Amino acid sequence: MHNTSTSVITIERFIMEQERLHPEATGELSNLLYDLCLAAKIISRHVRRAGLTDILGGSGTINVSGDLQQKLDMFANETVRHSVQHTGRICIMASEEDREPVPVPQDKPAGKYVLLYDPLDGSANIDVNVSIGTIFSIHKRVTPKHGTAAAKDCLQPGRKQVAAGYILYGSSTMLVYTTGQGVHGFTLDPTIGEFLLSHPDIRTPDGGKYYSVNESNWNKWTPAVQHVVAAFKNGDGPVQAKNARYIGSLVADVHRNLISGGIFLYPADARNPQGKLRLLYEAAPLALVVEQAGGAATDGKRPILDVIPGELHQKTPLVIGSKADVAFATAVFGAP
Length: 336
Ligand code: AHG
Ligand code: MN
Ligand code: MN
Known about the structure:
This protein is an alpha+beta fold. It contains eight helices and 17 strands. Strands 4-3-5-6-7-8-9-10 form an eight-stranded mixed β-sheet, with helices on both faces. Strands 12-11-13-17-15 form a five-stranded mixed β-sheet, with helices on both faces. Strands 1-2 form a two-stranded antiparallel sheet. Bound molecules: 2,5-anhydro-1,6-di-O-phosphono-D-glucitol and manganese (II) ion (2 copies). One manganese (II) ion binds near residues 96, 118 and 120.
């Protein structure tokens, strides 16, 4: 059914209607979400034309996690920063691509929100035209209003997030977010430059048909991880055998499982004893989205949202997706 202009719901209209549910809302969070929509459109435009402009390939630098920074990583990082930094809605921001948090410059107004983000997730897939994403996490500042924001504002448990979401540059560009009132998905209509509501109130199936893990790490896993992955591969007791899908972009793998049901795992292994993925701007925002959609996310032992961060780029094992699948895996990991 072709949407007529009267029936489409733009993300701006949706956010405004959500805001009306909260009489105390000042509109700052709504405006911050609009700012992120603008950044998403700009990044999407460049992702869609990456092969035609000099934006592919490495930038020749590495980030604090030791990853080679791609040109598009840096472009996306700057695009998000420039879309929010001057608005007076945030006091500090932290990115996968910056060693330290970036407080709003002294000469700019500081707002009450904190933005943590992975500007481009799945960087290894950029040059081979495979889906990539952007992940964002929004907290309220905890330091005094008129002081200078600090790392403490960033190091909050995921349960405290006021909003979280991601943009997926896939077969279409989608923005999926939650403010704790369910999960909603919007698809960018490039002909009008608007994100339109396409997936209202996303609920993830309790059990899923996919399992998603990098099996080349098999020999670095513990026996418990091997047992869990074998169960997803072959079926075991309550767990049905699942289809393997691994894109190598966390956002794409998590989104597929969110819609179709399934589980993604990036466990700790002999090479990554804390896991590979970062807590603050990968695991925690995606955990909030998945929990809000009826799924679950743990570090193999406890809910990701309950983990108290100690440092900005802290890594964590991640088990995320359909509730029954995550419960099975976490029970095996936690078994004595
Ligand atoms: P990023 O590009 O932001 O560094 O994230 C890459 C992450 C994540 O997107 C993906 O799930 C994981 O790296 C893939 O890692 P492996 O190649 O080790 O499987
Ligand atoms: Mn990432
Ligand atoms: Mn990244």
